[in-house]
Amino acid sequence: MSSLFPTYARWGIEPEQAKGSWLISTEGKQYLDFTSGIAVLNLGHGHEKVKSAVANQLEKYWHVSNMFKSSAQERTAKVLTDVTGLGRVFFSNSGAEANEGAIKLARKATGKSKVVTCLQSFHGRTFATMAATGQEKVRVGFGEMLSTFDYVPYNDCEALAKAVDNETAAVMLEVVQGEGGIHVVEQAFLDAIKEQCEKHGALLIIDEIQTGIGRTGKPFAFQHFDVKPDIITAAKGLGNGLPIGAVIGKEELAEYFGPGSHGSTFGGNPVCIAAAEAVVNEIFTLEFLQETNEKAHYLMSELTKRLQGSKQVVEVRGLGMLIGIELTHEAQSTLEALQQGGLLVLTAGPNVLRLLPALTVSKEEIDLAVEKIGKVLSV
Ligand SMILES: *Cc1c(COP(=O)(O)O)cnc(C)c1O
């Protein structure tokens, strides 16, 4: 009998060790890991620069509080604001907490409460972010939700125009819906959001928790589009496995997050910020992102080629290293067959396989993954 709440349908694999894109189980089986801790290990397992940054900080001290000055928080925030064109950062511990912070900030800055999100979105598991999430399955059984959220179908400009009004504090969305099935936003929808936000004095929050930190080949995925968010949220890949998130907002919002307005005991913890600083300095370089883009294109084109004509595949889609393979059937059995064959992948909704390789994956590892996927799906 387990002493844990059964909140996760766990796999029968326990890791013993992991390095780069590889994971070895306690049973000695080797897996090529295309899950990256759910878009967290963008630099792969055991990245030396992150490891030494964390080890150095552990030697000095590993926690104080946010009453103390932090040059590491300042430096990391500067990198995040420089790369996004925004002005200020608040560090949290997780994605949901970053979204909570963003929602609070938008409500305080606008003096309004309503937040419009999208169906099939995923924004987290706390009370506000669960209510923000446009998926019934996340909310079922938890009683009455916060009533200040309204939902529109993704990429539906007309529904958006109806939902946004003078009570709206913010529109919040992912530019690629991750958990919701790897759906990429349309520029027309972003244009409609801009128009509605301007018309009604609402802010635009882009949830970059899964798509950010180089995952799509740009520092943040919104940079593939013509759009100017007021606030973005990051987490997952930011600490490469150390728990840290961030609310990144435009300079004009600074006055609404004054002393005592918001906070977190652990947010931006010295060890986690050491990891985050190493991560952003490694990923946000032209060379790194260029290489990521090349490998992502390679993966996408090899996959598309290999799966051409497969009766099990509806579509291969995605952005950068965030790739979905929509199947004609439930994806779980395919996920298990791939596991058997030594490749770890995720699902995104019932029918979509989700590939999240480390951005440091090699072409040889991509070839191997495509071969394993092809074997299972090309029949
Ligand atoms: C994972 C995720 C979250 C929640 O992050 P947690 O760290 O699990 O709280 C929120 N939004 C998106 C888009 C995510 O992918």
TrEMBL record:
One Gene Ontology term from the biological process aspect of the record: L-arginine biosynthetic process
One protein family per Pfam: Aminotran_3
Keywords: Amino-acid biosynthesis, Aminotransferase, Arginine biosynthesis, Cytoplasm, Pyridoxal phosphate, Transferase
Gene3D superfamilies on file: Aspartate Aminotransferase, domain 1, Type I PLP-dependent aspartate aminotransferase-like (Major domain)
Record: residues binding pyridoxal 5'-phosphate: 95-96, 122, 207-210, 265
HAMAP family listed in its UniProt record: ArgD_aminotrans_3
Entry's family note: Belongs to the class-III pyridoxal-phosphate-dependent aminotransferase family. ArgD subfamily.
Protein name per the record: Acetylornithine aminotransferase
Record gene name: argD
